[in-house]
Each structure stands twice: as structure tokens, then as C-alpha cells.
């Protein structure tokens, strides 16, 4: 452990407020803050009284400091039509959209939905919202109309910015058709469409407009930035929970900025001369923090990629790294496993010598995948480093602090708690766990970047995060901490399904199944999958008069896709007469998990009908046999 790392860990432990006050000096303040922390559990305020603006610091400040001619953003996509934008050019584009938003009547405190893929215009729209004090809410351009519509309603979005299409492995996804359906019954007053195809879109008079008309409406409108108090919202972003109602995490201009600016250096070692590529999507927090905001706050060059990393060929990932001289990569275990399927030969066709470090997050980077990427692809020349964080934390909490001098890599571990972050493992009852003992990871004190509330639901914020284990932040992840402080994650302590790094609540999936008129009940869990981490294993009870069949399976798949989009990958649909439930009506999902794993479901003394366990077991056995024979797959 380096002296710098030891010193920072000690300073953060001795006086957390003073530590974060020094970290805040990395951020440009339009007005200095008055107090580092105001803590009134369960919520808190960071840098109260201070004024700043996230977008101003990303762009205007960089231009003022002489970086206007440096490339800020490289847009790449799977069909090879890229673009490059200097800081000055990106700033001009953002100001134009900011004026156009004001032309629609959008101002401080309004919410703007963005349903666009990872493309430069979407990133400009995010920055434009932050510039004028509106809170953007990006919805992953892969979610279906049900998920999009609900998020627009929960956020009370005034405007929706959408693209008409995106492409995935050469296949066109018609986003505007999804958006139009989601807009019915939403609070959106104006919808703006960026057309990327030659097809004439269907527009609703008085509500919908094309992108060029939107920009024209901004002529004569002011394009300046708003001075935002540190605790004013910069954006809201949905994170799935164990209920059907998504949680909208809120991130603020001040605390979020200090958090990601600090960890950009401590964890990732981000510098202005970096060409940085986070392979995520802007629909997720990784895309917000480490495609858009942190690289631009540092003054680096960031790459935004739209499409599949293995299309049109298995060397696409390596080709982009080589062509742009990428120095830092942030990817996901799912991507590593996908690349692993092709072997290391595609990598050897390209010069990867520019890369100095690779980071992975989204789920545990299992040792075989780490070893392959570390040794086969990068020849043990550079470190491949795991780390952990959540939508709610804004940036890394546990990791290998490469920017301060990396600690030894332990494959399978996410690393240690970074300076300024204090984590523990506790039992569900709140008792501390000993070294190596599995429990639930908790965060014992707030830090800049940790969400301070949920949009429109502050009571749920306290209940879900600070009251599950009173006095500490409940992460919902199961973990153990060894004697050297390394954190080892073992999955979710609750029932979130993680598919290719994307988190979906079980209730959201079950609710989607219930949209089909033949379904009376549904239970869903995540089943381990070698490529995606998990896929959905569903158990469905049909209404009287309906019989399970392959045709019905296909209809149910279409229903779930319409509601949640292709991100909800269904492994199998099992038709059962009844679900295993407690007498209070709660579905016993651990029974599903045990049967799929071939294990003992354990104590079922509280179950409503013990016969349902056997029925679920029989259904899974039949499905497994069908899958093994290559038949009956949904």
C-alpha cells in the first residue's frame, strides 16, 4: 500500500467532513459552500450554500482553461459512422439545445425524459438539461413502452427527447413506436423526435415535433448556465427494486460532482491526456458518471459507443481501442465473457499497447474471466481491476485504487473500501460479521454522491435504505470482508435479477407477465447464465380455460418484451398449477432457486400448499429435459 493511499485512508477515517471538504476543492464553485455536511438522518446535505453547475464545469470551464481544441467526445457505433467533437464544439452544441429547451418553456427544476441510445446528441441533451437547471431522466433505449411510460409518470416529465431508431447487431429497433405508446397517459407536454431513418414518423399535432424545429425554436432564447445550489437535482435515474414501482434516485449538482471527480482520480486515475472508453450505455449510472460527467470534468477524451461490442465482427472492441489509442477501459463482466467466447485471436490482430488499465463492474468479475482478460488478451502487461458501486452511490465505493497506487489484485474480490467510504458486513439483524463471514454489505455514513432521496417518495428512501438495518445504508448486496479489508461479493441479498449488468426487479418482471390475459400469477427469479450472468426463470399460473403451449410461451415473451424491452432475457417459462407462497401470500422465490440448483428448499413450514413445491419441481424437470433435447425453448 503506497504512502499516499495510507495517508488518505487515515485522514478520511480521522475526520470525514474535513476529508470531503478537501476533495471538494477539485470542483469549481461559483460560490463557496458554507458547511461541508448537514446530517439529519435519514437524509443529509453536502456543501450547503455553495453554488456550482455540473455542465458548466464539464465544458465552459475546460474551454476557459484552454482545452477548447481538445477532442472531448468521440461517437462510435457498430455501423462505422463515427464523429468527433472538441470541447468548444461540444459546448456550442449543448448551448444550442439549452436554448431550445428554454424555447419549450423548460426551466430550473423541470424534468426532461431522454429516450435515446448512446449517441452524441443524447449526451448533449443531458448536459443541456444540467446547464439550465432541469433534471434529466435518461431511460435505457431498450426498455419497452410500459417501463418508459411509468418512469415518465413517476418523474412528472414535462418534455421527452427521443430518437426514432437505434441498431443492435444490425437490427433496427424502432424507438419512436415505443415512445408514442408510452406517451399516452404521461404528463409529457412536448415530445421532440430526432430522425435517423428516412421513414416519415407519425407525429401528434400540438405535442410532437422534429429535432430541427426544436432547435429553431431556441433562436433568440438565452443559452447561459444557471448557478445551482449544491443540493439542487442534476438528474434522476431509475433503479429497480423488489416492487413493481421503480425507485427514482436523485443526484445533486454538488455532492455528485465531488464524489465522481474524486473517485475518477483515486480509483481510475483519470487524467486530461486520457482517451477513456466506458463500454456502458447512458441509460445506466455508469454511462452518466463515466461516459459523460467524470471524463469531461477531468478534461479527458471520452468515447460513446452505440451497438454491440462484437458486431459486425468479434474484433470490434479491439479495433476501436487500437484506432483511438484508448488508454483506460471500463467494461462489464458480461462483455468480458462475451469476448471470451471468441477466444484471444481477434485481440491479437490489433495493437492494444495504448491501454494502461482496465476496470470492470456490474457484477463479480469471476476469476476465470479475469484470468483470460488479464493474461490471454493483455498478456499480464496491465492490471484488470474489479470494483463495486450502485446507481444510488453515483460512483465507486469499493475498488482497487489504481490512481493512488494499486493494492495487490485478488481475483474474485472487488477490492477495498476507497478513501472516504466506510463499509461493513452485518447480519440482517444488524450485528457485525467477523472476517470472512458472509452478510449484507452496509455503508455506515453518507458520502458525496450517495443519493439523498428518491424522487417523489422520501418516505420510501428512509424505509428502503436507512431503516432496513437502522442507522446504516442498506446496499442489498451479500458480501464478506477478509482480514486484509478485501470485499468479496456473493450476489444480491434481495431479489434483483441482473442480466448482462442490467438490474431488473422480480416484481417488475412478474407484473409484465400479468399483462397477458391468460396469466393469473407469476413468479420470477434469476437463473445463472454463463454469458449474461443471469437470465429470467419464470413460473406462470394460467387462468382457467387456458393451457400451456409453445404458442402461449411466445405470446408471453412478446408481452414481457413490450413492457420491459429486450433487456429482460427470459431463459424459460414454466407453467405450474400453483406458486409456493407463504400463508401471508408472499411468493417463496428461494424455493424456485433451490429447485433450479437441484438443492433442498429448506424450511417450508410457512408454505401455503406444500404440493406447489413438487409441482414447481416437476415443471422445471420437464423444461430442463426439453432444453437438453433442443425443444420447447421459449
Structure commentary:
With 634 residues, the protein is α/β, with parallel strands linked by helices. The protein has two domains: 3-474, ANL, N-terminal domain (Rossmann fold); 498-628, GMP Synthetase, Chain A, domain 3 (2-Layer Sandwich), CATH 3.30.300. The chain has 20 helices and 31 strands. A nine-stranded mixed beta sheet has the order 5-4-17-16-18-19-20-21-22, with helices on both faces. Helix 5 (87-103) crosses helix 6 (120-132) and helix 19 (589-597) crosses helix 20 (611-628). The longest helix is centred in the C-terminal third of the chain and has 18 residues, at 611-628. It is globular, with a radius of gyration of 24 Å. It starts with a helix and ends in a 6-residue tail after the last helix. The relative contact order is 0.10. The mean pLDDT is 92.
Amino acid at each position: 500500500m503506497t504512502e499516499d493511499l495510507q495517508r488518505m485512508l487515515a485522514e478520511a477515517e480521522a475526520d470525514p467532513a474535513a476529508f470531503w471538504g478537501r476533495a471538494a476543492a477539485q470542483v469549481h464553485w461559483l460560490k463557496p459552500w458554507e458547511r461541508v455536511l448537514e446530517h439529519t438522518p435519514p437524509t443529509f446535505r453536502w456543501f450547503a450554500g455553495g453554488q456550482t453547475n455540473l455542465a458548466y464545469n464539464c465544458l465552459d470551464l475546460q474551454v476557459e482553461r484552454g482545452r477548447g481544441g481538445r477532442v472531448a467526445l468521440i461517437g462510435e457505433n457498430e455501423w462505422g459512422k463515427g464523429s468527433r467533437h472538441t470541447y468548444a464544439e461540444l459546448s456550442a452544441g449543448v448551448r444550442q439545445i439549452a436554448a431550445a429547451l428554454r424555447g419549450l418553456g423548460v426551466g430550473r427544476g423541470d424534468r426532461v425524459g431522454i429516450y435515446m441510445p448512446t449517441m452524441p446528441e443524447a449526451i448533449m441533451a443531458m448536459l443541456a438539461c444540467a446547464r439550465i437547471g432541469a433534471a434529466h431522466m435518461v431511460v435505457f433505449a431498450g426498455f419497452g413502452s410500459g417501463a418508459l411510460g411509468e418512469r415518465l409518470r413517476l418523474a412528472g416529465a414535462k418534455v421527452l427527447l427521443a430518437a426514432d431508431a437505434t441498431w443492435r447487431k444490425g437490427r433496427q429497433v424502432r424507438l419512436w413506436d415505443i415512445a408514442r405508446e408510452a406517451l399516452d397517459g404521461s404528463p409529457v407536454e412536448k415530445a421532440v423526435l430526432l430522425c435517423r431513418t428516412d421513414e416519415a414518423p407519425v407525429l401528434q399535432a400540438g405535442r410532437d415535433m422534429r429535432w430541427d424545429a426544436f432547435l429553431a425554436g431556441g433562436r433568440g432564447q438565452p443559452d447561459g448556465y444557471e448557478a445551482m445550489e449544491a443540493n439542487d437535482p442534476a438528474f434522476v435515474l431509475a433503479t429497480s427494486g423488489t416492487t413493481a414501482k421503480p425507485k427514482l434516485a436523485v443526484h445533486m449538482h454538488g455532492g455528485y460532482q465531488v464524489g465522481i471527480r474524486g473517485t475518477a482520480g483515486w480509483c481510475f486515475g483519470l487524467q486530461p491526456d486520457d482517451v477513456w472508453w466506458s463500454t456502458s450505455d447512458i441509460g445506466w449510472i455508469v454511462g452518466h458518471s463515466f461516459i459523460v460527467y467524470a471524463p469531461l470534468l477531468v478534461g479527458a477524451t471520452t468515447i460513446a459507443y452505440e451497438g454491440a461490442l462484437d458486431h459486425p465482427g468479434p474484433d470490434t472492441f479491439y479495433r476501436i481501442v487500437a484506432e483511438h489509442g484508448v488508454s483506460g477501459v471500463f467494461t462489464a463482466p458480461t462483455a468480458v465473457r462475451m469476448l471470451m467466447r471468441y477466444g484471444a485471436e481477434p485481440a491479437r490482430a490489433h495493437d492494444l499497447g495504448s491501454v494502461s488499465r482496465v476496470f470492470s463492474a456490474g457484477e463479480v468479475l469471476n476469476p476465470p474471466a479475469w484470468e483470460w482478460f488479464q493474461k490471454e488478451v493483455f498478456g499480464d502487461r496491465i492490471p484488470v481491476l474489479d470494483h463495486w458501486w450502485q446507481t444510488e452511490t453515483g460512483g465507486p465505493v469499493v475498488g482497487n485504487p489504481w490512481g493512488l497506487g494499486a493494492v495487490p489484485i485478488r481475483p474474485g474480490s472487488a477490492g477495498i473500501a476507497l478513501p472516504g467510504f466506510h463499509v461493513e458486513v452485518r447480519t440482517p439483524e444488524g450485528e457485525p460479521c467477523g472476517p470472512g463471514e458472509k452478510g449484507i454489505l452496509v455503508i455506515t455514513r453518507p458520502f458525496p454522491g450517495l443519493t439523498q432521496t428518491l424522487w417523489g417518495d422520501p418516505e420510501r428512501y428512509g424505509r428502503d435504505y436507512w431503516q432496513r438495518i437502522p442507522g446504516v445504508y442498506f446496499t442489498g448486496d451479500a458480501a464478506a470482508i477478509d482480514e486484509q479489508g478485501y470485499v468479496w461479493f456473493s450476489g444480491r441479498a434481495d431479489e434483483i435479477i441482473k442480466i448482462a449488468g442490467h438490474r431488473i426487479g422480480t416484481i417488475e418482471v412478474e407484473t409484465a407477465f400479468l399483462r397477458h390475459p391468460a396469466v393469473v400469477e407469476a413468479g420470477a427469479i434469476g437463473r445463472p447464465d454463463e454469458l449474461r450472468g443471469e437470465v429470467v426463470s419464470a413460473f406462470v399460473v394460467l387462468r382457467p380455460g387456458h393451457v400451456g403451449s409453445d404458442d402461449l410461451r411466445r405470446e408471453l415473451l412478446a408481452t414481457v418484451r413490450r413492457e420491459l424491452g429486450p433487456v429482460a432475457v427470459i431463459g424459460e417459462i414454466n407453467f405450474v398449477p400453483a406458486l409456493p407462497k407463504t400463508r401471508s401470500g408472499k411468493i417463496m422465490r428461494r424455493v424456485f432457486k433451490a429447485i433450479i440448483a437441484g438443492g433442498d428448499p429448506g424450511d417450508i413450514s410457512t408454505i401455503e400448499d406444500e404440493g406447489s413445491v413438487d409441482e414447481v419441481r416437476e415443471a422445471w424437470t420437464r423444461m430442463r429435459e426439453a432444453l437438453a433435447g433442443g425443444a420447447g425453448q421459449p
